[in-house]
Amino acid sequence: MRRMRAFLRRLAGVFQSHERELVAEIESHLDLHAADNMRAGMTPDEARRAAILKLGGIEQTKEIYRERSGLPGLETVFQDLRYAVRMLRRSPGFTAVAVLSLALGIGANTAIFSVMDAFLLRLLPVRDPQQLVVFDPIYVGRSNNGLLPFPVYERLRTLDKYFSNMTAILPVDRSNVTILDPGGGVDPGQCSVGIVTGNFFETLGIRAAIGRTFGPENDAAVGGHPVAVISYAYWNRKFAGDPGILGRTFTLSATTYTVIGVTPRGFTGEWIGRPTDLWVPVAMLAQVMVELPPDPMRGGRMSYHVVARLRPGIESGQAQAAAHAIHQQYLRDTSGPNPAARDDLHLMRLAMIPAARGFSPQRQLLAQPLAIVSMTVGLVLLIACANLANLLLARSSARQREIMVRLAIGARGARIIGQLLTESVLLAGMGGMVGLLFAWRMGNTLVSFAGSGPVRRVDAAVLLNLHPDIRVLLFTLLLCLATGILFGLAPAIRVSRISISPGLGNRGSGGCAGGKLSKVLIVLQVALSVLLLIDAGLFIRTLRSLKSQDLGFDRAHLVMAWIAPGQTGRWGASTAQLYGAIEQRLSAIPGVVAVSPNVYGMLQGNTNPGTTLNVPGYVPASDADTRAQWSIVGARFFDTLGLSLIAGRNLTELDTTTSPQVAVINESMARHFFRNDNPLGKHFESWGVVKEVVGVVRDAKYESPREEGKLMFYLPYRQQLGRLTQNVSVAIRTFGSPDHFESTIRRALTDVDPRLPVLRIETVEDQLNALLVPERATAAFSLFFGGLAVLLASIGLYGVMAYHTTRRTGEIGLRLALGASRYGVVGMVLKETLTLVACGILLGVPAALAGGRMISARLFGIRAADPATIAAASLLMIVVAALAGFLPALRAAKTDPMEALRHE
Amino acid sequence: MSWKTDVWQGTLTLMILKTLETMGALHGYGIARRIEQTSGDQLAVNYGTIYPALLKLEQEGYISSEWSVSENNRRAKYYSLTRAGRKQIEREARQWEQTADIIARFFTPGKEPT
What we know:
Chain A is an alpha+beta fold. Chain A contains 29 helices and 25 strands. Chain B has helices at residues 2-23, 28-38, 50-60, 83-107, and strands at residues 26-27, 63-69, 75-81.
């Protein structure tokens, strides 16, 4: 306590001087003492002198007093800072280059960190997040994205020995929300709804920031609780932060809900990367999802995320085993009479995953590109550091005399190092501040990385909480300190070791000792730059080969319109009728060649889970061997896509519920199951129903241009009424450019049903581009940072060569005087430059080869050890380096021999 | 010399506090003078060293200071004990006695515990 108090008083003393008071006190002391002395018989002069002597000197007393009045360490830092600011202001060019290159390096690292933090590191803002777990049924290694049927949730809840609470969440997107105002309704656009059990907020430990949350009592009577809790972000975005939010109403699928609360800021649900806008109780399921067939069962037949809170002290292995057993029992109870389904049970494992950081299927997708980019920016920062170390080395040679003088008048080495480090940390700090400005912009660009599935079109800042938060600032601060020390320490230590005597007398030959260190740094920079250039080249070629990949269908002039028939309350036959009407109405648009619904769309990323087949006569080699993907399409689907039929017939309007079930399969599926036999007329069974193969079409790339030989079968929608529940894409082939068709198509769809939500209309080309956002971003970022690295390295190279040739003016003059040609001098300097570059390349290429293994999973159509890419990157480096070395070489060649010799 | 630095700094604060306890409010010169006299002129140190010690005590809140006029009409800064200062004297005196006691055992042969 006392120490703290004394410390604070001293801290205050740093900023507030006691000097005047001290002088007065010493003066009064001397007066008193002198008066005593005079009484003892001294003359006034003697008396005062004796008093000063006894005091121990006026200045000395002031000095020991000052040491106590403030904090000497802190004062030194301030002194150093003031001095550093003066030094940096004196060389604005150096400061600008240093701050800018550091800003780019630090900014990029901060941006990446903020994305990583939001996606991978940040804990859910709930009570004791480390107790939370989610379940995921894994079938033969393939995750079901954590979705479980509601009855499984209800059975798992009986495990209250292990779990203190457990909630189920059904995430759905709705486009039929209207916010009611006294003045009328407002359509807020697409809205992500969490349909949750009543104990959702209780399980997560979330208290409302405004109003209240709902509890189990609001989840009792089916259809009887039209209440909603909205997220803080949604409240701000769509209700303009209205302070009178409680009691406001909105309609969702024709039911009016009352807002009873707002969740705390920063909480957007358990799913990171898909922020939930509002939550309603499961009791309202049928009212929200009007497309579902009437179902008396609570929770319907939908699949839910299940989040549970482990009791403290429970071993998670035990809890998982218990949950797995319950899940297995459920599967046995519901597998029906089909013995094949029972045989499959052992392939299903119920995994229990820690959910302290929330649930996110995008995390895996993002982890790799993020790792690559964060390594890249780390290397760029390293190069920037090496550059600055070099600049500082050159400067420290220039400042040698100043430092020698300081050493000569008694400054300690540590004090000089401290001073120089203060300068470099100050530089890094300034770079960090400018870098933070870059970071927020870069962070948002980076999040488009997440581009997968339904989150693609959402604003990045909304998607992830990319707020400038304290952790990110702390990270930047640490980064600044680390970089400042990293690039400042070596030059500082070297400078402080300078011996005083030779340097002071002779201003000529100091600083050569720094030559070796700076050359090592250059070689390192070149190596890293070549490494980054090679990677950039690989990613660019990957992007190009992905874009030019043969998709198996004609991608030009192809449009997809996404609609949500379910949200109009349609299902089964009425949905099929709607499809028919849409086919008819859109085909009538002039310029439209063919139209067909297609449930999963094309190139939507990993959205088609597939199903297990039973093929008579086929012996599966492995468990996953009978899995194929499927789609439900219209009669003109193959015409619309330009997929050519190889054998058999098309699907037609005559394939209905009353005719035998048929399917058209792709080449890969035909080859896989039927080898060399004629597949036409063969049968296979899915969902317990046997289908006859009536046609074979060419393979296509269904989900991503990277995929290879996927098994696929197509079913006619008029025959699959029970499966027409999802949102659906309508594929439209146009004659000529599809760009002008959007409004026409939208109008035509409104003609068919004005209540039908049209989610989006996009060309397949656009969709492919959106799908390749991670690849494009990786390529763009690695090209940008590779270029930056080369630029930084060549600035460094130029600086070092310029410095060395200046130091060697005398020698070069002598050579010229002795008859060396100017070409010879240019050649000599260039040779030196290129030797450094060659060393760098010889180091960088093996490093790139070694690192290639890490990135090879992201590559496509190219090997990591691609000779052409390596050669091109090396050549580019050599050319840029030669340019950087040429200027100093030219300057050296222009040396006037007489001038140079006189200089010596 | 180490006496001047370490031990001096440590004991000086106790001497100052004790002086202020017996003499009441006093200025820096008076305190220095008094300490010198009490020690029987054995402590011949610079008076200046008393000022950092006074500052430290004031920062810790054991004494307070105030400008006032001396008996022969000169302005001087007078220091006096605070309540916390009085408590501190008790504490430090006890500690000092203990320390002195322990040290004494080392200098009195035969008294060492076996």
